[in-house]
Amino acid sequence: MKKPLPRTTQARIAIGVISITLFVGAVTYATTGSEQPANIASSISCAPTPTDALGPYYVPGAPELASTGDGSLDISGTIRSWPDCLPVPGAKIEFWQAGNDGQYTDDQRSTVYADDSGTFIYSSGFPGRYEARPIHIHVKITAAGITELVTQIYPEDQPRDSELRLVFTAVADNATPPAGYSTRAPQRPLQ
């Protein structure tokens, strides 16, 4: 069983509407002490996940792998659409990150797909530090009915053997984003 987040990290992550704006790329976060995924759909506001930079190392066509690296960081969660907060079945979720040596290589890239309830599971090694950037994992989500979502997870304060449970919320194709929200990934990273 993975270690839960320390309470200080949980407090920092709980900024806003249970959104991780400083450390995990502004995705909704939940953790439970059991092996069951947290049921947070009814307790979240379902605000769209802020976009973050695609970065220079995105490579399309990453292999479909449930695990990369040493598998010490479990990432699971749900893909939802905004504004209805419904699950997005079959969403394609691409992950890429720097390895322990700070280099982006093909063995640190993966594609996973959400199941019929919009949930996914992926295991990764803990990301390495790339240049002066905080430790981060890139995420790109695409599916029919939603706009492409590019964001990043910042697990800086995570214990090395831990678990992240996330909810990524993408704007529906036919929806007007909320005021101030951009569906375009920024040129520069948020952190």
List the helices and strands and how they pair.
Blueprint: H1 7-13, H2 15-18, E1 28-29, E2 73-82, E3 92-98, E4 104-113, E5 119-124, E6 137-142, E7 149-153, E8 162-171
Parallel strand pairs: 2-8
Antiparallel strand pairs: 1-8, 2-5, 3-4, 3-6, 6-7
Helix vs. strand class: mainly beta
* Number of alpha- plus pi-helical segments: 2
From the 3D coordinates, which CATH architecture would you assign?
Answer: Sandwich
Query: What number of structural domains do the residues give?
Result: 1
**CATH superfamily grouping:** Aromatic compound dioxygenase
Mean pLDDT: 78
Describe the largest sheet. 4 strands, mixed
Report the order of strands and helices. Answer: HHEEEEEEEE
Widest beta sheet: strand line-up: 1-8-2-5
Point out poorly predicted stretches. Answer: 1-43
CATH C-level name? Mainly Beta
Helix proportion of residues, in percent?
Answer: under 10%
Estimate what percentage of residues fall within beta strands. Answer: 25-35%
